[in-house]
Amino acid sequence: MKKRVINRFPGQGAAAVLGLLPFLLLLLAYAWGSQVRLEANPEDKLLPAMSSLAAAVERVALEPNRRTGELQLWADSAASLQRLAAGLAVASLLALVTGLATGMVPYVRAALAPFVRVLSMVPPMAILPILFIVFGLGELSKVVLIVLGIAPCMMRDLQQRVMELPSEQLVKAQTLGAHSGQILWRVVLPQTLPRLIDSLRLNLGPAFLFLIAAEAIAAESGLGYRIFLVRRYLAMDTILPYVVWITLLAFLMDLALRGVSRWAFPWFHQGQERA
Amino acid sequence: MMGALLEVKQVWKEYGSSIVLEKLNLTVKEGEFCTIVGTSGCGKTTFLRMLLGQEGPSRGTLLLDGKPMPAEPGPDRGIVFQRYSVFPHMSVLDNVTFGLEVTRSRLLGRLFGGARRKAREEAAAMLAQVGLGHALERYPSELSGGMQQRLAIAQALIKKPRILLLDEPFGALDPGIRADMHALVLKLWKESGLTIFMITHDLKEGFKLGTRLLVFDKPRLDAQAPNRYGATITYDLAIGRDEPALLDEIQGAVTETSRFIHDSR
Questions:
Q1: Of A146, A160, B60, B108, which one has the greatest count of Cβ atoms within 10 A?
Q2: What stretches pass through the bilayer (chain A) (predicted)?
Q3: B83 part of a folded domain
């Protein structure tokens, strides 16, 4: 009894093993490549051995920097995460307010939706020089880049989510005597919040992209700054752990946001499982 | 109170060149239970949207209590849709309390302290009447289809509307559950003296529940221009003298229109 391949499902254990497999393969491929290159040339810097990676991690994470006296990895992470958090918070707030207004009120939609649509097509990296000129080389320009990078897409996304709420609900609320403000406050806003978290999760990747880009060009600390600084010395032993660390941070933030959503909006996820 | 609650005089509804409803005339007194049957595409839902205030007539007048129908939904006309008419983010109890909160707290739409407790007690009593007294803290997604419709009915009735509009409310339910819902609606109607308009696909359901049956149908069918002629009320019957032959006749006419509409699409 042979089933079609689209009808065959792995068990829980098999799925876990299969999920880990690509990671293991990548690790093995790296170890093998590194060994081959180091055998040919012990001075090779491109694929450092696992032992040199571990030494570099120990150096940046546990030993105070000789020049600044800081633990470098943690100082860089703190600087980057502060910028990221500020950017995400401002972008979320803007997206929520704009999305609710354009999604609910036809006049606001007529006035703002085309503008937001065009705004979301502006390549954020192309206006980075303008940001540096206008806002200076400090923290503000980096936060603004993240906001400009992700807020327009989030606004459009949330407008769409608000408009997707069944019109039956809005009619029902009106037949119960609610005015526009009450419908916003009690019907639309609570149902938009979990969708805002969804939108934020999808935009974590782009947010990191704009953060690293801004730091690469002008900064004195931060994960992106460090990577682009040590690039000059071909310090792959620092770059690779930093990349893994950034990826891990993004992954954990995504996981945390999902957890918050499930905890705060159980009704949203029950509905999703049934649908 | 025997005055006309709803008066429909020579109402037409057109979208561009396609005519949905034509020459609609109807007078409904307070306390009537009108069931509306007809095939899909015969303007039943358009008529309901006009009663809700979501749409106005293209021509003719639509009077509620002798005054023009308001141009948007309001608390004098409650509604239960086939789906999606409860709020998924509120518990069963909150769904019903919501209707009381929005009128008692105009600014926030939220009550606190004793006022909140009182509103919740009223809502719980309403829910007990529709048989949901045991499910107050559940979310709608945890309820069966029939329970969700009971909730939607309780939600509408807590506002004591003059008119209750039911848009195929039991269309998605199992037959056994439907019979229970029929008994519930009849009980609530007798107790409250509401005026009910109920759209249904099911002619038998229409006969069983209503005091008055309205059949929406297209009296003229033109295969070359299917939207040239609109639907109107072809039968307006006081129920109680329903004869099987008449039921067959209506079923035949409605089925013919249904085939016509589907073929011309």
A1: A146
A2: 84-108, 115-134, 200-219, 239-257
A3: no
